[in-house]
Specification:
The protein has seven helices and 19 strands. The chain has helices at residues 4-11, 44-56, 107-116, 132-138, 198-215, 235-241, 270-288; strands spanning 15-19, 35-41, 61-64, 70-72, 77-83, 91-95, 98-102, 119-120, 141-142, 145-146, 151-158, 162-167, 185-192, 194-195, 221-225, 248-249, 252-254, 261-264, 297-299. A hairpin with a 2-residue loop joins strand 6 and strand 7 (98-102). Strands 6-7-13-11-12 form a five-stranded antiparallel β-sheet, with helices on one face. A four-stranded mixed β-sheet has the order 1-2-5-3, with helices on one face.
Length: 301
């Protein structure tokens, strides 16, 4: 039996440790039961020290950023949640148009900081909530622009190997994902950005934010798009055409604004949301013989 008190004591030397914290407090959906431990590390070196303890004891763990693409079960997670935030939020200009973004910084903040210094090229992604780490792992995209369009390399922390710099092509970036070793932690990315005029790039960001405010339920608790777009199709249109816009289970609802969003209108549970997901998948398959694949990550189910 795992002595979680002892583990907490050891990890607290290297980061902020909370026991039995409800993950609803850390996810944009606002649902999810407790984790045995939630750990927020202070910096890269202390994170390595934490991971040595976790790996040595073969403990279950899951990495989160700002919790914007995650659905956690009502039962929570029987392990350690490592929140990449706090000390891993640095951004620096390496050389000319080469910038390093650590994984805990918000994507919007990183983009805007570079724009202020005359560098950009991925302004279309500024409206995506969440962290740089999450954007990298998902190869976030919007308006025909993808995060890895500008990534040169990434530093990742790997069991036994430590931190390794991996060239962009080796991640084999694809729609909504990259290939990364199991259990690895993304520490930072290096990007080769374009020289831009700050005022022009800032105006583009404002336009992107306005479009999102108009077309997405940004004032509601959600995890962004629930399903990946099938080849040559849009998940939201399939859901809408199947007559599912606005359907609900308790406070979980298919958004009337964008059908590929499920929103928490107040007191939805993770079970409510998952039931609604299954109804949508079933109805779309029955009508169009298309199997919708989840884009949102799930934990604890």
């Amino acid at each position: 039996m795992t002595d979680w008190n002892n583990i907490s004591e050891k990890l607290s030397d290297f980061g902020i440790v909370e026991r039995d914290k409800r993950l609803a407090q850390l996810t944009s959906f606002g649902v999810g039961g407790p984790a045995k431990i939630v750990l927020k590390s202070f910096d890269k070196n202390r994170l390595i020290d934490c991971m040595k303890i976790i790996w040595d004891k073969n403990l279950s763990y899951y990495i989160i950023g700002k919790g914007t693409n995650l659905l956690v079960s009502d039962d929570g997670f029987d392990g350690i949640i490592i929140q990449i935030d706090g000390g891993l939020d640095n951004i620096s200009q390496i050389d000319g148009n080469i910038w390093q973004w650590q994984s805990g910084i918000s994507l919007k903040s990183a983009i805007e900081t570079c724009i202020d210094n005359g560098f950009g090229g991925i302004e279309e992604l500024a409206g995506i909530p969440g962290s740089v780490g999450g954007a990298a792992i998902m190869n976030a995209s919007a308006y025909d622009v993808s995060f890895f369009d500008k990534v040169k390399s990434a530093d990742i922390l790997i069991l036994e190997a430590g931190i390794e710099k991996i060239e962009s092509a080796k991640f084999k970036p694809k729609y909504r994902g990259i290939e990364i070793p199991d259990g690895a932690i993304l520490i930072s990315v290096e990007l080769e950005l374009d020289e831009v005029k700050p005022i022009v790039a800032s105006q583009k960001v404002l336009k992107v934010l306005a479009l999102r405010a108009k077309n997405q339920p940004i004032d509601k608790k959600s995890a962004g798009c629930i399903f990946k777009n099938p080849d040559g199709m849009h998940a939201g249109k399939l859901i809408d055409d199947a007559g599912l816009k606005g359907i609900s289970i308790n406070d979980a609802m298919v958004s009337p604004i964008h059908s590929n969003f499920i929103v928490n209108n107040g007191k939805a549970s993770a079970t409510d949301i998952m039931k609604l997901i299954e109804i949508v998948r079933k109805k779309v398959f029955e009508k169009y013989s298309v199997e919708l694949e989840l884009e949102v990550k799930t934990l604890g189910f």
